[in-house]
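Course assignment 3, question 2. Fill in each field.
Student: A.L.
Task: Predict the tertiary structure for the chain below.
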Amino acid sequence: MPSPADPSPWESTVVLGNGDVAVIRPLTPHDRDALASFHRRQSKDSIYRRYFSPKPELSDRDLDHFTHIDMTDRVALAVELHGDFIAWSSYERWPGRSEAEAAFMVDDAHQGEGIATLMLEHLAAIARSNGIDRFTAEVLADNRPMLAVFAKAGWPLQRRFDSGVVDLDWELATTEAFLDSVERREQRADSRAVVRLLIPRAIAVIGASDRPGSVGAAIWDSITANTSVPVHAVNPARTMLGDRPCHASVADLPDDISLAVVAVPAQHLDDTIDACIARRMRGAIVITSVDGTDVDVAAMVARARRNGLRIIGPSSMGVASARPDASLQAALVRFTLPVGHVAISMQSGSLASSLLRRARDLDLGISWFVSLGDKADVSANDLLQFWEEDTNTRVVAIYTESFGNPRKFARIARRVSRTKPIVAVRTGSASVGAASSALYQQAGVIEVPTVPALLDTARVLATQPHPSGPNIAVISNSRSPTVLAAAALEHAGLIAVDPPRPLDWRSSADDYEYAIETALDDEQIHGLLVIHAPAVEGDVDVAAAHIHRAAGGAGKPVVAVLLGGTDGPVVPGSAVPAFAFPEQAAAVLGHAYAYGRWLVSDSAIEIGPVRPVDPDAARRVIDHVVEDGRSEPRLEECRRLLEAYGVTFPAAVEASPATAVETANAIGYPVAIKAVRRRPGRSARSGVALDIASASAAKRALDTIVEALGTDADELIIQSMASPGVDLRVHCEHDERLGAIVSVGLGGAQAEVIADRTSRLAPVSPAVARTMLAETRVLTALVEADIDPSAVVDVIVQAAQLASDHPRVRDLDLNPVIASSDGTVVTDAIIRLADDDADGDSLIRKLV
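Answer field:
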């Protein structure tokens, strides 16, 4: 049995419904006394509801039974909060069946905090991994809270009532309702946990100082000057800081401190965090840098989380908000941030100062700024959960260098993006590979290349609607910047159109106002890019005032380019953004338009197969291949695997050189002859002979293949020729961080050279599949050939579903998929399988 010093792989920290952080772990024999004590302090009603009888004490036999478990057929989980045993749950498999009975008990003092729901989710994940696919439970009819837990979990329940007891049973399927329930519970809990960090009752600055130039002095001055809650200093070398008393240690602080801002030398960091834990603080912002030190950050964070303390950092620059209702400036900045609606998360601490100064110069209003630093605990995922419900935040801007839990980010960001745009710069490991790009596209995240572009895009989205179409009217009094703007708009995926009332070098500021109003009234125009080139220096301010007046409150986006001016609002306090050059403005409008298209298409929630699928049939094929010690299915196995998901092959038969011609005669000409172990290319010498129209032609092609490949020609495939059409490639591959990724592009022998592809996380909806086609040259080719893309969309959706449902499918390469007026067929497939499911149970993946 595991001991407390040897944590189970099933141990994890979880966020309760009230924002507290607790630990869920398997029960061990060491828990006998804690379990007995827990039982004694529960009310008689709670005990009766759990055991259906008065049971003031657990017997030695009970204690042995509940604490000696195998984590397979018998599982028991404990929940600890600050080291206190506050709940436990269990399941026991019914002998000889794939069903188990589940039971729960939550401390009377902690009911209503979502603990039973959390335990149910974790029990179900463990059960699924052990081959258990159904739970049963007995609940007293008057135990409404527990009945509600089961009802709200998202599984379809079967109920039977007999003699005051409700018998429940349900299948542990990963239903959409279940996933929705998990996400809702997770979002509420994570949001409340972040609230306790960012909106504290009182703050302690540990390492506060009055020594000029020190980090302790900078953070102390910043917090005391701009924070509305009580602030206390801790420094053993001081008794006063200015006119405020200074505490010698964390132990001397008042009891109501919920947040610590830590700026101590690295060698004291562990002891400081332990002291915060002892005072039961809820959060710590760690300014201290641990680079080049021997601080075990992972162990420190694990210890903190086990005891309900969440950490931002280390190496954080701090957090700040200029909101009147939550004024907090626990950041290393020496100026007041403007109040607004953009929340900023930065992983880099060193870049944060420059970013905030740039935001100030742009008059970009901030709702929150959080420097995550090393991101050892609190991540952008946690912040998104909070900002999703924050009414003061309209746009989220993120700078990230690495993904902590990319699957979770994809789920959360996709949900948040439907109501609030997320703009992001990704560098470092977060920028590597098609998987990262697919994650951003799938989640609706607006990716920009630079930090200045991040701020530009955020300020426009915070103040302007996104374009409903691509037509952008360029209103300008100068030809050269108009030409530049038109080219930049085209590069951004937009169409530059002439305004209804054009201007020229003679146009006055009044003319601008009329031209803008006229363009806004034109239904064929979806946005305005207004350029003013001043004849003399003073003209800029006059034109800016007229632009502001004409564009104020418009239902279409209006951005201004004031040549000779600066970036910021077109006039102080205006919602109309201004730029110094047309390229910046055009790029931002392009990002806004792409986001609007995502809202209409990719954000659709109808993810899933468009035709019936048979996952069990596919699983049987995979099991057979793997159990046979192979990683690649044979031809017939490939056909059965694909057809289980509605993807069809033309007639194909395995053959040898001796039987190839006879097989071709039986199939009927024209045929293709392919070597299983062929070379790259589409010629007989590479092992592929196409459009073979007769037995004599088959014999000649076969001789060439055997001569070129030797023994590699021993295994052949004879296949009916598909009608000619557009060749494309549908490729699904497994990413260790994100799961299945589906890519689409032009196919054929030169697919890798052409490099025409776009990617998404699998599974995808038909709307997303259509968007993917439009992002490549495939859609243009289909339109030019007068081929309906619907059948191609079906193949993409079905293949992505197959890869998503079966993580052991590590590579599924359909190339070429030929689309013609006769339909769409897969003419070649390479499938590679793994002998284990590295992703684990899909239910488990949703909980990490």
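Instructor remarks: Residues 1-6, 839-848 have pLDDT under 50 and may be disordered. The two ends are 24 Å apart (CA to CA).
Grade: pending
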